[in-house]
What we know:
Order of helices and strands: EHEHEHEHEHEHEHEEEEEEEEEHHE
Number of helices: 9
Structural class: alpha/beta
Strand content: 15-25%
CATH topology of the largest domain: Dihydrodipicolinate Reductase, domain 2
Oligomer: single chain
Strand order of the largest sheet: 16-15-14-13-7-12-11-8-17
Amino acid sequence: MRKSLPVLGIGLIGTGFMGRAHAMAFHNARSTFSLPAQLKLVALADADAARAEQCAQSWGFDRSHARWERLINDSDVHLVAITTPNHLHFPMAMAALEAGKAVYCEKPLAVSLEQANQMQCAAKAAGVVTRVGYNYQHNPMIGLARQMIESGELGQIISFQGEFSEDFMSDPLSPWAWRCDAAHAGGALADLGSHLLAMARYLLGDVESVCADSHTVHRRRPASAGSQQLREITVDDQTHALLRFANGARGTFSSSWLKHGYKNHLSIEISGTKGTLAFDQERLNELRVFRSGASGRDGFQRLLAGPSLPGYAAFCPAPGHQLGYNELKTLEVHALIQAVCGKGNDGPDFEEAWQVERLATAIRVAAQEQRWVALKEF
């Protein structure tokens, strides 16, 4: 007789876009993978009690709470997933860690380096598994890119060019939202750029120093849709930086939520002494590679995702049929569950997310003080 698997109770805080993505990922992981635990969707919390109840029923959770504290103190909840606005990550994660719960928090980890430092210290003290939602790292094509870099296929890495641009704030009449307040968020640098910084670290390692420039293009926005009242914007619309990596490579970084025509343009180009690779999240199943030394073959080769790459075959047995955003989130949750059950250690934890916040802080300081800033200053 097969031994029954332990039950892992899931608690989810937040019912927005990311809350739904997390709920789908837990369902999909359960049906896609042979997991080392039975996932039980125990509770969902949202400040809007009616929405919490509606989403709990629609998404398959046993019960709902209007107060997130009740979810964290629920004895049946072993893993707390946090998908709220950024400023709430800190109190929620700290409470969950104090309760001894594993924590799966959306990015960025916090709204300040001080908060991030407290969170990673608390995670170490609690001795529980933590993960942060830098889900683009779980793309099989990004795994292939890392493998190519680490194997030396591109030679010595000399340059990194990265951009994450979208256009959801490009209209100056788009109303003020919590993302526009520095106390609640961190602008394009935190909202989009943190993904790119996490990717740069994942592929090339530590950054030693940065210089940067930030720009708030639309300094006031309507207080609400159609309102004549205007509110001040206290965060960046776009940020650009130069990076010096510990491995000697040099890099460029840019993030913007004003760039017309782009919807999810997380793009990277990495060049070495033997070749170059290029990736764009808007074409997430492709990797472009150029290898030097092949006479008459001056041009990039397009590599397609397929079942030979780790993770892909769980969803599709045929190459070129393509994974999507929710599959990446499912791969992220799969890695999370493996870690919680002591079966793996993939994915960025609070320590790595703190490193990303440290890098983002250095970029902010560099932009404010108009100088090169060394990471060791933090």
